[in-house]
Amino acid sequence: MNTNTITVPKAEFDFSTFEKARAFIENYAAQTNIVVILVKTTKNKDGSSYRQAFFACKKQGQYNGKKEDAYTTKWTGCLFVVGLNYCKRIKKFVITKLCSEHNHEINPDSRKFSSNIRKFSLNELGMIGELHDNRLRIKDIYVVLASISSKYVHKHDIYNAISRQCQQKLQGLNEIELLLKTLQNDENIMSSIATQPVYNNERDQDGSFIQAIFWAYRSAVFEFAIAKDVLIIDTTYKTNRFSMPMIVVCSINRFRSTYPLAFALVYSEMKEFYSWVLQQLCKTLTILTGDSNVTMIITDQELALMSSISTVFPNTKHQLCIWYIFRNMRKKLKSIDMDEFIKLTSPASKH
Asked: CA of 267: how far to CAs of 84, 273, 276, in Å?
């Protein structure tokens, strides 16, 4: 082929439409045996800006003395990048980035990156879902699949597979809608919701803002009714998708095992929310067991929670969690051997 007849793409080439720019680049690629992949597309909502990158390999290299690792490819083993942007000033699509260094056959070893070869089988997708349900992290799932699969496994493919499975479980609902639907339809759950009116808010069609959600398990409450001795209340952080503090209420059964009794998602850690959660707990105990008395409640030194306990459960004894006490002592009294101190002060050492 006479290469003199080929128009080589250059930076600052402009095109009236994106389709013309794409046709020009694909025509050049066909004449030079270049593999072109369209990726990294961004477009503003109003259509004012549009950017498209064409690329074909995954390898760090040098171009004009600079590293090219932002737009790298993995199918051909060398650099080929064309960045196309919409220029408002001239109202045309302009080539703003170009590296067309590609003139050889595709490396056979790089075919493991092919999108067809990378597709997971139904058995692999089922395994990924099962491992994710068992709380394995993506990097751990990657290790498992890489050890048993004959294909090249990519971590981001695992992430995408898990994301698609989660979307299927949501059944077209968002997370909060699915949570509310589950709480409403599960016969083993008693739940309550605290809302606040919202005005002039287009996103909230029902005109209310959810401030707190409380739910308790009937079976756990019935087990707690056998001996209403101890409740353990603590708040967890960054453990849910709603970015809300979660209050966890646990108890201890006759076999000295801890089990969850109730949960609550609250807007913030303020006395009014703690009081509301404890009032719902008191109400639930009264409805299911006929008695809301609790012998003891153990918490950390959360002042708002402690104040709410004294208001809602005035006859209940409050006690600080000894685990938090020892943890703080380790921070403050670093010169003392805390393990030896605990051993000497434990009740067993006095006998």
From this structure: 45, 8, 12
pLDDT single digits (tens) 150-181:
777 878 889 889 988 888 887 777 777 888 88
CB count, 10 Å around CB of 320?
Answer: 14
Nearest C-alpha neighbor of 97 from the set 61, 58, 64, 48: 64
Cα distances from 62 to residues 8, 70, 78, 272, in angstroms, run 20, 12, 10, 60
pLDDT for the residue 45: 58
Residues 234, 260 contacting (CB under 8 angstroms): no
Each domain of the chain, given as residue ranges in start order, spans 3-110, 115-170, 175-320
Residue 321 neighbours by CB under 8 Å, 6+ apart: 232, 234, 298, 299, 300
Tokens at 107, concatenated:
């490396």
Predicted confidence (pLDDT) at residue 83 exceeds the cutoff of 90: no
CA distance 249 to 261: 6
What's the Rg (C-alpha) of the chain? 31
pTM above 0.85, yes or no: no
The residue behind tokens 């171009």 is 63
* Residue 27, pLDDT above cutoff 50: yes
pLDDT in tens, 230-286: 899 998 876 777 778 899 999 988 777 889 999 999 988 888 999 999 999 999 999
- CA-nearest of 41, 84, 28, 75 to 56 is 75
Distance CA 144, CA 140 (A): 6
Question: Both tokens of residue 285?
Answer: 């105990």
